[in-house]
Amino acid sequence: MSVTIEGAGPLTGEITVPGDKSVSHRAVLLGSLANGETRISGFLTGEDCLSTVSCMQKLGVPVQVNGSDVTVNGVGLEGLREPEDILDCGNSGTTARLLLGVLAGQPFYSVMTGDSSLRKRPMGRVTKPLKQMGAEILGRDDGKLLPLSVLHGRLRPIHYNSPVASAQVKSAVLLAGLFADGVTAVTEPEKSRDHSERMLAAFGAEVEVDGNTVRVHGKPKLQGQTVRVPGDISSAAFFLVAASIVPGSDLLVKNVGVNPTRTGVLEVLKDMGADLELVNERVESGEPVADIRVRAKELQGVEIGGDIVPRLIDELPVLAVAAMFAKGKTVVRDAAELKVKETDRIAAVVEEFDKLGAAVTATEDGFVVEGGRPLSGAIAHSRGDHRIAMSLCVAALAAQGAVTVEEPESVAISYPNFWDTLQELGCRVSGF
Ligand code: S3P
């Protein structure tokens, strides 16, 4: 399958983006481990979060999905039961890694796997600390690749110094820590997204945050909650960039989560000269939320590196598109993590945007974009990666000619109504 996208003038009006993927996963997981009912609104019904729902159902948790309203009847910390079958995490790294933390503490046997992309992604970064806690995990490549079997284990608390700034690693260790007696801690080199620690505290766990270290006390009594999931800033980013680069645009993106551990994309776009304004700022279910107004403006190249990188890692492909339409050079450093996402996103950005005429070169830990060259219509491939597919579509809106994106189905991983929103904004979308 392929889809062909053509811009049709300025992007104007108001849009809402689907629920935050990270918050949606965590709401189902913690709701499952809590006592009593958890009601989630604004849940992302993308394929990744539905993988988490189906795994929790297989572990014996009643979860009802009714559009973006989800009800979880929590079974309590000790209420999960041995699954009859393999737990399929699909394309979702968050499902696999966070669930590993939960399964490591269970008194039963389980097996998990994922699709061909997920089976290539590193799981050793999670199984290593879990094994230090006493988990028994077996799998390909000495327990570093899915499929993985988790044998029943008794966990002890550790203080883990993670070599990578990864919310998935941090969350897996903290979730495992719920099943250990005593205090489990994780220190990371830079601060990654903090939804787990916020939500654990909201559900009643004792959590302490001290710089880049998070501690959780084991064996808490978690209580079901009402969770309002904000719109995903990672999904909003596609339209923030699109409206910045399509001349004459003036767009309001409503109800976007603006947790400071996620807003690197706003800081970089502002550095590039983008016209962004946060309005109606508020806090919902412990997460900062705002509407974001964006107006088209000429952008400048920038340098992106250091501790901002974990706060915008998922937005780098679409920031590369902003850089292609900016004056001058943009350099992205310290982003080697891009190589182990749904696809190697450094290679994908360099090779797929080359087909549109962009000048992007790969470096060891990022890429360099020479901005200001007009992009032309072309056929490019998503490589099965939702964020590469949507970044190509954003480029299409400001390119000279139509862009065909091959295998765009993965967009449903995080943004099921992306095509509808493009059409509502007057963009020409055909072929899906
Ligand atoms: C996520 C953490 C990030 C991010 C991913 C979602 C999460 O991954 O890229 O899309 O929900 O914890 P890493 O932990 O691998 O950096």
From TrEMBL:
Keyword Amino-acid biosynthesis: yes
EC category name: transferase
Any one GO BP annotation for this protein: amino acid biosynthetic process
EC number: 2.5.1.19
Residues at which phosphoenolpyruvate binds: 21, 93, 121, 168, 345, 387
Active site, per annotation: 314
Domain Enolpyruvate transferase, residue spans: 6-422
Molecular function terms, GO-annotated: 3-phosphoshikimate 1-carboxyvinyltransferase activity
One GO term describing the cellular component: cytoplasm
Similarity field: Belongs to the EPSP synthase family.
Name of the protein in question: 3-phosphoshikimate 1-carboxyvinyltransferase
Source organism of this protein record: Dethiobacter alkaliphilus AHT 1
